[in-house]
Amino acid sequence: MEGGIDTGKDDSLGVRRRGLARHLVAVQEEQRLRLSRELHDDLGQMLASVALELHMVRAGSPEMDARLERAAMLVDRLNAKVHDAAWSLRPADLDRLGLRASVEDLASVLCGQLGIPCEMDLEALSSPPPAEIALTLYRIAQEALTNIGKHAAPSRVSVTAHIHDDRMRLTIEDDGRGFDGGAEPGPGHLGLAGMRERLALVGGKLSVETARGKGTTIYADVPLAG
Ligand SMILES: Nc1ncnc2c1ncn2[C@@H]1O[C@H](COP(=O)(O)OP(=O)(O)OP(=O)(O)O)[C@@H](O)[C@H]1O
Ligand SMILES: [Mg+2]
């Protein structure tokens, strides 16, 4: 019976769950680091050489030249995508910068690129939560901000964090396009599902408030105590 578990057992369950979460988050980060290196170092360099070759080759006939040029442009675009993917997979520099500065960095880079104001209130991230929670929140902020850059076309963004009753809430809000939150995102769209899974690993929860034309707010809630 769930309710019949005594406190001692409950504590050790909590400790084991945290240990497992820490381990899983560390494994994920390791995989991301490996993928990021492979994408950047191997794939990126090979694509760059193919692009160079294609840009140099001249077939002689105008039709073939046009085809070669299209192929070269496609490889350039592929290269840019590989570069973006490697960039977003790269390991968080949380040890050096800390969670607050790292999240501030992500938000300022995005808002700088979009040329829009960014409101931040991230004082709550100044005393860092346990490592697995910090990494989880960093990855949530990264995906939510990437989504804003890709899909929202907002005129402002806000990123805030608050602590209430041993729970941390990270909120990322935009006033952009919004979307149909009830619809299943479909196969190629892994970001929101990934955020949910990451949060579940540390006992947290993702909520999304959105509607077409009404902007999007992402809430990531995590318990700070085991
Ligand atoms: N801030 C946002 N503003 C508008 N639309 C959004 C926003 N965030 C998500 N969406 C919509 O929700 C869909 C699912 O998002 P999700 O992050 O799961 O996938 P994706 O960004 O399309 O692809 P992936 O994250 O796998 O590269 C997006 O395709 C987009 O239509
Ligand atoms: Mg996404």
Automatic annotation (TrEMBL):
Q: GO terms for molecular function, please?
A: kinase activity
Q: Specify the superkingdom.
A: Bacteria
Which Pfam families does the UniProt record give?
Answer: HATPase_c, HisKA_3
**Chloroplast: present as a keyword of the record?**
no
Protein keywords = Kinase, Transferase, Two-component regulatory system
Q: Which InterPro entries match?
A: HATPase_C_sf, HATPase_dom, His_kinase_dom, Sensor_HK_TwoCompSys, Sig_transdc_His_kin_sub3_dim/P
Domain Histidine kinase, by residue range, is 34-226
| Gene3D superfamilies per UniProt | 1.20.5.1930, Histidine kinase-like ATPase, C-terminal domain
Q: Is the keyword Methyltransferase in the record?
A: no
Write down what this protein is called: Sensor histidine kinase
Q: What is the lineage of its organism?
A: Bacteria, Pseudomonadati, Pseudomonadota, Alphaproteobacteria, Hyphomicrobiales
